[in-house]
Write a structure and sequence with these properties.
Rossmann fold; NADP (chains A, B); methionine biosynthesis (chains A, B); homodimer; 428 residues; oxidoreductase (chains A, B); 11-stranded mixed beta sheet; 14 helices; Alpha-Beta Plaits; EC 1.1.1.3 (chains A, B); threonine biosynthesis (chains A, B); Dihydrodipicolinate Reductase, domain 2; 6-stranded parallel beta sheet; alpha/beta
Chain lengths: 428, 428
């Protein structure tokens, strides 16, 4: 048995206390598995006086996370504060500069500053691990960088925001409108302080940026992601999708195309019978496709104390075992800057239009779609009591460019009362 | 870039040629990810003259795998011959003795001789990796030993024989009897030369023994597994299960109980709406439950050239990166010899009896069950034209001991014409 691996834990919220709990509860197991004792020497959080349910008096307390990161008795700085800038980034940089390895759950920081932090880590001969930043307890980073290292990855997809999936499945199961379920989720404490991070697809977008980077060997490019939230999904979209054998999911998709790297985080229709379609509630799922392995599906809790702490401890155990790897799976200086491209590959789309009840209205829409080269597979117009009738269209495969041209032209007509809703039908 | 990692590949069947193909096709990618060139220096197979579709003339040829394992220009011995004893074991031992690391897909060899091989490897300072031995392309060994290293594992379950799952789902979807589908699977080349390895649950049992060992830190104990094949599953069992909202799967389950380690590989009923219940065809699935992570589900191809070679290459890349770990996740000498126990935890069971059409027959069965303390949840007797009527019973939770007592007593009566079929209903 060599010297212990000493952790400094910054951030003692749900996840931080989960890590403290595992380190204490499973000390013998961790030592048996890694060949080293894993200990916590110091901690840091905003409020030193708060009762967190466990006695923390055995650990040195640092009110400043930067000071924690620089302590001589800390080998690994465990960053669980969150926030893309500010104390989390300052302390991470301080830890690397002081020669510490870093384990973090901070998706925003890495999605935005991942490249510069990775370069800094590699220059210092240190590593940054972030299994807990993507898909909670699911070891997806490890699966991509290590388990599937022999594969050229062709596509990565995932439902990675449990709150959005909860809202969408609850709308379907209870037949409730978005606004009602959003309010429910807020009351249950499921939403971030800024709910746009969840329902706007930003949190999931951060995760997709990290997955893309390790899957394709590219510089993390959050700005290159086409992001669309779930706010405009109506209960009738969900019902119509179900009628046609689909479910609507906030789905992240990253794939390499001839024109560059395509990254999308947007509501999509997926077959109801597929693993993604069957995913209920707050559970996450990541689908990885590679040239050799074909398709691997990983499913598990995307958040919560135990699962997220499990992911953090997986990283810590790797470090205790001496497993060291470049942050994004290969040296940061070798990551490519791939041009980003928008939905280069054609796909079928689902459209919902609010059409005025005027003679020739439908003909006008059909003509516009035809002029843009968008061909109609199925169309339904519904009986209605109001002035605007819902019209649902499923197109044949079309490019997003052609579709956008048609949608812009439709919006300019005098026969629709609201911007059309357009959802991609993803083949999974 | 350090020196190349040099592989010697023994066995050039489907998987072996898949490995050769990846090493050649993805040379640049592998080097970028691991920081080392990965090369093949020598190969071995029974028939040197056979056309395998790729030019192998650049590699030294050894007709004897032991000689291959001992070559000075081989760092990693890749054993893809199969067979629990014989050349595979001889060459693996020779490789370890000669100071080589070993990567193998050989579940039978490790399930039977894993402990002694692991001890030999550790004494020699070498490692044995076997991701490809369990669940094909799914990185389940890595997930258990590394990703979930912070967890006390509470249960591992899996559908790990694609042929059995193909047979069971094909029976259900096509409404065909076991014998017909077995013949189909044989004609399609899905079955091992000795089909009992597949349909008798032995192949899947080998995999379960390996999963149990790494999940629970125990000596691999294939003999401790309660194994039952799918040969007695009738189409009516599948139909009845479906009627009640279940599917029948050949399911491996390992869990620690107060009385010891329980390992079962047997047909079970699982909820049709669960990920296990929804698994179709030859796909594999492993469900891992831990005290922190709750539940992780992994799904992917359980066999085939690309997926299995992908798993082999994941192990090879780990070795190239310098990741070295004890064979079963912790030193072999620290693995416990847990007593094996048979279905210690109570569960509900599905029973099918072929009951003679005699007055009082059903009463006799009900009385026997009651006397053994097995209480009936649901019972159905079917209309029939023959002398024996199918009777289906779902019990409340009962111990296997009580159930076995009742089944033995039922067999001794004069009212059944065949041994009862009893399938556990697993909560997943």
């Amino acid at each position: 048995m060599t010297t212990p691996l000493r952790l400094g834990v910054a951030g003692l919220g749900t996840v931080g206390m989960g890590v403290v709990s595992i380190v204490r509860r499973q000390a013998a197991l961790l030592a048996a598995r890694t060949g080293r004792d894993i200990t916590i020497t110091a901690v840091s959080a905003r409020d030193a006086g708060k009762d967190r349910g466990l006695d923390l008096s055995a650990y040195a307390w640092e009110s400043d996370p930067v000071a924690l990161a620089q302590r001589d008795d800390v080998d690994v700085f465990v960053e669980l504060m969150g926030g893309e800038d500010g104390p989390a980034k300052d302390a991470t940089e301080a830890a690397l500069a002081a020669g510490k390895d870093v384990v973090t759950a901070n998706k925003a920081m890495l999605a935005i500053h991942g490249q510069s932090l990775a370069e800094m880590a590699e220059a210092a001969g240190r590593v940054i691990r972030f299994e807990a930043a993507v898909a909670g307890g699911i070891p997806v980073i490890k699966t991509l960088t290590e388990g599937l290292a022999g594969n050229e990855i062709t596509r990565v997809m995932g439902v990675m925001n449990g709150t959005c999936n909860y809202i969408l499945t609850r709308m379907e199961n209870a037949g409730l409108p978005y606004e009602t379920v959003f309010k429910e989720a807020d009351d249950l404490g499921y939403l971030e302080a800024d709910p746009t991070l969840d329902v706007g697809g930003i949190d999931a977008g951060h995760k997709l940026a990290l997955l893309s980077s390790i899957a394709f060997g590219t510089v993390p490019d959050f700005d290159g992601i086409e992001i669309e939230g779930i706010q405009r999904i109506a209960i009738e979209d969900i019902r119509q999708a179900a009628d046609m054998g689909y479910r609507i999911k906030l789905l992240g998709v990253a794939q390499r195309t001839g024109r560059g790297l395509e990254q999308r985080m947007q509501p999509c229709l997926v077959p109801a019978s597929s693993p993604l379609g069957q995913l209920e509630g707050g559970t996450n799922m990541v689908v990885i496709e590679g040239d050799a392995v074909e398709q691997i599906v990983l499913r598990g809790p995307g958040a919560g104390q135990g699962p997220t702490a499990s992911a953090v401890m997986g990283d810590v155990c790797d470090l205790a075992r001496g497993f060291r790897m470049a942050t994004f799976g290969q040296p940061a200086t070798t990551l490519q800057s791939a041009p980003s491209t928008r939905a280069a590959l054609p796909a079928p789309y689902y459209l919902r239009l609010a059409l005025l009840d005027k003679p020739g209205a439908l003909a006008k829409i059909a003509a516009i779609l035809g002029n843009s080269g968008v061909s109609i597979d199925r169309m339904r117009q519904y009986a209605h009591s109001e002035t605007a009738a819902p019209v649902l269209i499923v197109t044949h495969k079309t490019t997003r460019t052609a579709l956008d041209e048609a949608l812009a032209a439709i919006e300019k007509t005098d026969v629709v009362v609201a911007p059309p809703v357009a959802l991609r039908i993803e083949s999974v």
